[in-house]
UniProtKB/TrEMBL annotation:
InterPro entries, sorted: CSD, CSD2, NA-bd_OB-fold, RNase_B_OB_dom, RNase_II/R, RNase_II/R_CS, RNase_II/RNase_R, RNase_R
PROSITE patterns for the chain: RIBONUCLEASE_II (PS01175), S1 (PS50126)
E.C. code: 3.1.13.1
Record protein name field: Ribonuclease R
Gene3D superfamilies the record matches: Nucleic acid-binding proteins
SMART domains: CSP (SM00357), RNB (SM00955), S1 (SM00316)
GO cellular component, as recorded: cytosol
Major location (coarse): cytoplasm
One Pfam entry name: RNB
Gene name of the encoded protein: rnr
A GO BP entry: mRNA catabolic process
Family membership: Belongs to the RNR ribonuclease family. RNase R subfamily.
Length: 705
């Protein structure tokens, strides 16, 4: 057991009372030579929020000192919530007066103050452990002797004061990057200096560049990383084939979107007596990216590839992500294969996990596969005639896997994502719905199957591992969801001991109905966020006891780590010393990867919403037909066919005074008795767009039903 674990065990023991460094030294019966190591370890643990040092110089774990460690989730209105590190602790509300200079994203220690009757716990920030970022992106407003920057991120609710000699020649209205030199104290705004001028917001590319800088996404790879990547061969050598299953003569294909370049998964299927043999073949990235090398360290920092509306910011240099690691057609590639034998009802009979070498015969797209399986397109069928039976068999197996998954209660949200089409200058020219066809479902089911097999295999070996976990939802959120659904005429079964199957039944019940999207959205928000963990806690949303992410090592760091551990296990290299090393780092890697994933999702969503707002800004005055997606006391939101959502504010409904009924979730006219409810079809006119805030305002033209 390492020193950190010994300290934590001591502090969590029943009879422990806060101790000084000297008392901890004595209690642990350390050697004098360990004194310096103890001090360094305590300092590190305090910095990470694992222990707290009180004013009398005594240490203890936060939970036994009535303190909670976590991350600040800011709100544009000025208040915030603490998202605790411990997922078993509910979020803590923090008013502006109790933030004590903490801002969105900061890692802090909070003291719970009180819990109002029937309300949530409130708290106060007592210590800031780590600032989320020292750089802020915003718009400059210059005065004669000083300037202010208004942050793009409304959750950073302070304007930043810029002294005259720190403006660096920036002009009013320009987007800039500010380095914070003084953090807010009391009523005093933070101060900063301008370190980069991005340009005026209406200049091509400045909007997306602002998002990239806001989330501190790395646009370039360090020179030493690129040098290492260049040393990797472009082609496979005979030396690479040792210990690999040769699958180059198998019919194996990749199936991806049209514009995908990092092809990290390929599949094959054939019928066997009494069932099916599925091959899931994943790029063997860990063969090229060795532990603690510049490539590995940079990949860990990035955590994942980021797919913005106009570009990809990759986790690995293109030499790997689009080259030697990408399963490009008709060239040999190194892979890790999971070969699963299913019975006729899609239950796993046996499996094999092995390093392999493949040569895909086609680079298929979802569009082409859907043309074959759904549209019976003669031209596409003729082009891929030798694979058509394989695709039909894939669809057959995938359908059975889907059915089996639904039977156990796995959730399947029917969200159609929006894709914004840009011109060469990055301006939006169209917004289209991306549908999930049979091709998409085939890959989805096959990847789920492989991930479950790998997770269960490693779990029973009792070796250090990284799981993809999704914990039980908070009971309070489920009660709130139940109330919302009751007002729409639905009810959750077994709300006190919620099972995923009960929520899947709600999803099925609303399918195809006007309220489907809002119910799915509210239901999704009632669940916890899936994350990475070194502990196997199960996956509620998939109703799976064992789950991991194994299938995308080109673009997700946890998958790369999993490949590395799997390779060592297969080679018999996971000795006790190596397992201790992994136990020391996997928790930190899982936590960091979860944080990087969240940042990537926020950045991706923001760029899409930004371009949607820009698209609608060019359509002021146009009339569209849409469906009321939600109703609030201040108006109702309308979703258009292209997935754009905008607000009809209650103040624009001039034919009557409208009142909100929270029991029926409706707006009802005082005189006319006219009712607006979720699912109503309406015609609306675009009257205003605020691109910076991604807000779109509609005016009601006509209620259609």
């Amino acid at each position: 057991m390492d020193l950190k674990e010994r300290i934590l065990d001591l502090m969590k023991s029943e009879g422990y009372r806060p101790m000084t460094e000297a008392e901890i030294f004595t209690a642990l019966d350390l050697d004098l030579r360990d004194a310096d190591q103890l001090l360094k370890t305590l300092q590190f643990m305090e910095k990470e929020g694992l222990v707290v040092k009180n004013r009398r110089g005594r240490y203890g774990v936060p939970e036994r000192m009535n303190l909670v460690v976590g991350r600040i989730e800011g709100n544009p209105k000025g208040y915030a919530f603490l998202i605790p590190d411990n997922p078993d602790i509910e979020d803590i509300y923090i008013g502006l007066q109790n933030l004590n200079g903490a801002v969105h994203g900061d890692r802090v220690i909070v003291r719970p103050i009180f819990k109002p009757a029937g309300g949530r716990v409130e708290g106060e920030v007592v210590r800031i452990l780590k600032r989320a970022s020292t750089r802020i992106v915003g718009t400059l407003e210059r005065g004669k002797h000083f300037a202010f920057v208004t942050p793009d991120d409304k959750r950073f609710y302070y304007d930043i004061f810029i002294p005259k000699d720190e403006i660096a020649g920036a002009k009013s209205g320009q987007k800039v990057v500010v380095s914070i030199t003084k953090w807010p104290e009391g009523r005093r705004n933070p101060e900063g200096r301008i370190i980069e001028i991005l340009g005026y917001e209406d200049e091509p590319g400045v909007d997306i560049l602002s998002v990239i800088k806001k989330y501190n996404l790395p646009l370039e790879f360090p020179e030493k990383v690129l040098r290492q990547a260049e040393q990797i061969p472009d082609e496979i050598t005979d030396e690479d084939l040792a210990g690999r299953l040769d699958l180059r003569n198998e019919k194996i294909v990749t199936i991806d979107g049209e514009d995908a370049k990092d092809l990290d998964d390929a599949v094959s299927v054939r019928r066997i007596p009494g069932g099916y043999r599925l091959g899931v073949h994943i790029a063997d990235v860990s063969y090229y990216v060795k532990e603690k090398t510049p490539l590995d360290i940079e990949a860990m920092k990035r955590g994942c590839s980021v797919y913005l509306v106009d570009r990809v910011i990759p986790m690995l240099p293109s030499k790997l992500s689009n080259g030697i690691c990408s399963l490009n057609p008709r060239v040999p590639r190194l892979t890790m294969s999971v070969i699963i034998d299913f019975d006729d009802k899609a239950h796993v009979k046996s499996y094999q996990i092995t390093p392999s070498i493949i040569k895909t015969c086609e680079r298929m797209t979802y569009t082409a596969v859907n043309k074959i399986l759904e549209d019976n397109d003669k031209e596409t069928i003729k082009r891929y005639e030798y694979l058509v039976d394989d695709f039909k068999l894939m669809a057959e197996l995938a359908a059975k896997l889907t059915r089996k998954r639904f039977e156990r209660g796995s959730l399947d949200f029917n969200f159609e994502e929006a894709k914004v089409i840009l011109d060469e200058d990055g301006r939006p020219v169209d917004i289209v719905r991306e549908r999930r066809g049979v091709g998409e479902r085939i890959i989805e089911e096959f990847m789920l199957a492989a991930n479950e097999v790998i997770a269960e295999h490693m779990y029973w070996l009792k070796v250090p591992f990284v799981y993809r976990v999704h914990e039980l939802p908070d009971r309070e959120k489920i009660y709130t969801l139940q109330e919302f659904l009751y007002n729409l005429g639905y009810s959750i079964k077994g709300v006190k001991n919620i099972k995923p199957k009960a929520l899947q039944q709600i999803i099925e019940a609303v399918k195809g109905k006007p309220e489907e999207r809002v119910v799915n959205t509210v239901l999704l928000r009632s669940l916890k966020r899936a994350r990475y963990s070194e502990e196997n806690l199960g996956h509620f949303g998939l109703a799976a006891h064992y789950y991991t992410h194994f299938t995308s090592p080109i673009r997700r760091y946890p998958d790369l780590i999993i490949h590395r551990i799997l390779r060592e296990q297969l080679a018999g290299e996971l000795d006790e010393k190596r397992q201790e090393q992994l136990n020391e780092v996997l928790g930190r890697i899982a936590k960091h990867s979860s944080e990087r994933e969240r940042i990537a999702e926020e950045a991706e969503r923001e760029t899409v919403e930004l371009k949607m707002a820009e698209y609608m800004a060019g359509r002021i005055g146009r009339v569209y037909t849409g469906i009321i997606s939600s109703v609030t006391p201040f108006g109702f939101f309308v979703e258009l066919e292209n997935t754009v959502e905008g607000l009809v504010h209650v103040s624009t409904l001039e034919d009557d005074f409208y009142h909100f009924d929270d029991k029926t979730i409706t707006l009802r006219g005082e005189r006319t008795n006219k009712v607006f409810k979720i699912g109503n079809r309406v015609k609306v006119k675009v009257i205003k767009v605020n691109k910076n805030d991604r807000q779109i305002d509609f005016a009601l033209e006509e209620k259609l039903d």
